[in-house]
Amino acid sequence: MRVVWTTSGDGFPRGVASAEGIGLSGAHFTPRDYQSYALIREHEARAALESLGVRPQSLTFLGFPDDGLCQLASAQPSTNAPVFRSPYTSRISPPPSEQIIRGVQYRGLDLRRELEHVMVAFHPTLILVPHPADEHPDHCSTHIFLDDAIERLAGQGGTRPHVLHYLIHYRGWPLAGDVARGDVSPPAEFSMREGRWLSLPLTPAEVASKREAVLAHHSQMLVIGSFMLAFARTHELFVEGEPPVPKCWCNGENIATGGTPSQDRHSRSMP
Fold it and tell me: What average pLDDT is seen over the chain?
């Protein structure tokens, strides 16, 4: 198993405020504040996976810009593409300790190359990735980059892994509906087009372990705790099959097809 984070979730002012124990109103955070918050988020993610028995060697943080992946995805992927500067951390590249390929910067081409490197080194047969219709721009952008990386490696003779999609942000889901029973159904308004929902039942012990892992994300629990705990349920949901028209909203524009943005994208979690 290998778990890969494209960002460290640092571009989240409400999270920074909660981590520092101050109110958000009138607060002014420095790039160092956001960089420090990234370390907090990474520490919490490691603790969560450790509670599930995942080894530290199996965790990879790529350090690309939180709340910036859709800008990378919307730019022309080339070595001449402008380098993106995070409005939060002021970084133009991942921290040196998180660069797989030395010298990578905040460009779409570099993120795709990093993902290709991970897949070539690990040879995954199954990949779980956010669904392209996930309303968080970093999540759907991650799908775009991963899909591009898979296509390029397959074109070079690599084995195409099986891909399952999961959904995190979609309107009011999963807080609405039957979450109180611990049995969460797929969102009613979600258009499948192609593919099907798969449900993986969890034992009571597995549900308890997942709840413990969710609670390890202390800084996020202070802000969106009820949303996160809604995923500690009796089963996991995945979508099998690639949708024909991916959606990814960036600054009000569907960078995959063009269109009109959907409603709420304010809940935040690290992709």
Answer: 87
SS (H, E, C) the chain: CCEEEEECCCCCHHHHHHHHCCCCCCCCCCHHHHHHHHHHHHHHHHHHHHHCCCCHHHEEEEEECCCCHHHHHHCCCCCCCCCCCCCCCCCCCCCHHHCCCCCCCCCHHHHHHHHHHHHHHHCCCEEEEECCCCCCHHHHHHHHHHHHHHHHHHHCCCCCCEEEEECCCECCECCCCCHHHCCCCCCCCCCCCCCEEEEEECCHHHHHHHHHHHHCCHHHHHHHHHHHHCCCCCEEEEEECCCCCCCCEECCEECCCCCCCCCCCCCCCCC
Render pLDDT for 42-64 as a digit per residue (tens, 0 to 9). 999 999 999 999 999 999 999 99
Predicted pLDDT at 260: 38
pLDDT of residue 103: 96
Q: pLDDT confidence of 181, banded at 50, 70, 90?
A: low
* List of domains in the chain: 3-254 (3.40.50)
